[in-house]
Design brief:
Order of helices and strands: HHHHHHHHHHHHH
Number of domains: 1
CATH superfamily: Formate dehydrogenase/DMSO reductase domain
Largest sheet: none
Helix content: 55-70%
Low-confidence stretches: 1-23, 25-36, 424-429
CATH architecture: Up-down Bundle
Shape: globular
Number of helices: 13
Strand content: under 5%
Length: about 425
């Protein structure tokens, strides 16, 4: 039974004359896979589990002492946790899109990395949900969200869509395994792929609407935010899948021809350019003479968020150059380009969330106290003259624990689930 993702497509920019070298690589793959599936993978699982336990301990400290231990205050009520939530939702959606598009449209895929991409999507989704949980001051009251839910709120939409998305991702992975074993038709798998693709786009659109429908925040209130979120998800999701694919091929877990990496690189470069285009359109609209968002653009270009802005621009531009120049498409540079793209999108998330709270939408916020913001004693001019929010060490520690949970789930998937194509599976796993 054929699989769309396993169809080979020749690339005109790729020199396919190194067949002998690839043969030697494949011969060594079995030995590497055995090592990876043994001590190496077990060590990765152990380290991730230890970091998860440490994160849980720090979260307990946060719960016992209250959210005042974080850098978040009334005027900047979202911080590192929600920034990371947006980031991981993008990573998860991008991974599922990369996996589902080839099967949904019956086109060639990327060399059998589909199940690995879905597993990375599941891990990132769990991490995203974890970020929301640790952001709650009273997680024991989570049930009230469902008991007294407001279905007209974008926050509730996101909760429902994200939960559905996680279940669907797990079901989609199961369906791929069944189809690969000949127990599910291609038609059924294609239908599931289409549903997964729509859900992946929807989950990031709904996340964007949480911000884009807030009229009181100049930086957030734009119709471009939803497509911009989707394009960012495609960038960081594709970058993550490519980095993971290169790493797993390096350790012998996957047998992946270089042509598939070239295809992913070209796709990543195209996604980066689309994302930068959306960003440019938004900046032009905001900064054009008479535009109400000129202050926002100034804050990004030369204000307190300038380091994040220019890091995003430079990192994404460098990634595009690596992806589009054939001579630069070495494995090392492809991984570097992928990491640059991921870092750029994370900077974009920081700009969006922190920037939304950076510009005061009230002339006078009433009596200033330490409970409202961290720089309360400097007045509004001092507060908004620099960064309103900066995470505390406690927030960094809890975030690291949640990120480790994502890694732990992914590593457990590699160890116990048939994520490699059936023809590549070996008893050593």
């Amino acid at each position: 039974m054929s699989d769309f993702s396993s169809q080979a497509v020749l690339d005109d920019d790729l020199d396919l004359g190194a067949a002998q070298s690839r043969k030697k690589t494949r011969e060594a793959a079995g030995t590497k896979a055995a090592a990876w599936g043994g001590r190496g993978l077990n060590a990765a699982i152990g380290v991730s589990a230890a970091l998860v336990v440490a994160g849980l301990a720090l979260w307990a400290v946060q719960l016992s002492g209250g959210m005042v231990q974080t850098g978040m205050r009334n005027l900047d009520s979202w911080g590192l946790y929600i920034t990371s939530f947006m980031f991981f939702v993008g990573l998860s959606a991008g991974g599922l899109i990369i996996s589902s598009v080839p099967k949904a449209f019956g086109i060639a895929g990327f060399g059998g990395i589909s199940k690995v991409a879905v597993m990375s999507s599941i891990a990132c989704t769990v991490a995203a949900i974890g970020m929301v949980v640790v952001d709650l001051g009273q997680p024991a009251r989570l049930w009230e969200l469902f008991a007294y839910s407001n279905l007209g709120s974008p926050l509730m939409w996101d909760i429902l869509v994200l939960g559905t998305y996680l279940v669907l991702s797990c079901f989609y992975l199961w369906a791929q395994v069944r189809a690969e074993a000949g127990r599910m038709s291609h038609t059924a798998l294609r239908v599931i792929s289409v549903v997964a693709l729509v859900t992946a786009v929807l989950v990031h659109s709904v996340t964007a609407w949480i911000f884009g429908l807030q009229q009181g925040r100049e930086m957030w209130h734009t119709a471009l935010l939803a497509p911009w979120f989707v394009s960012s998800a495609l960038v960081c999701g594709t970058a993550l899948v490519m980095a993971v694919a290169v790493a797993l091929r390096k350790v012998g877990y996957l047998k992946l021809d270089q042509s598939y990496l070239v295809k992913l690189a070209k796709l990543l470069g195209a996604f980066v350019m689309v994302d930068l285009y959306f960003f440019g359109c938004d900046l032009l609209t905001e900064a054009f003479p008479g535009g109400s968002g000129a202050e926002v653009v100034a804050m990004l270009v030369s204000g307190p968020l300038a380091p994040y802005f220019w890091t995003e621009i430079v990192a994404c531009a460098a990634c595009a150059v690596i992806c589009f120049v054939p001579a630069l498409r070495t494995n090392t540079l492809l991984v570097i380009g992928s990491l640059l793209a991921i870092a750029g999108i994370f900077c974009k998330r920081v700009q969006l969330l922190v920037g939304g709270f950076q510009i005061a939408n009230l002339d006078y916020a009433g009596p200033l106290t330490s409970m409202q913001h961290t720089a309360w004693d400097s007045g509004l001019s001092g507060i908004y003259g620099g960064m309103v929010y900066w995470p505390t060490p406690l927030e960094f520690g809890v975030t690291l624990g949640v990120v480790a949970l994502g890694f732990l789930i992914f590593f457990l998937g590699l160890k116990f689930l048939p994520l490699r194509p059936a023809e590549e599976a070996s008893p050593s796993k």
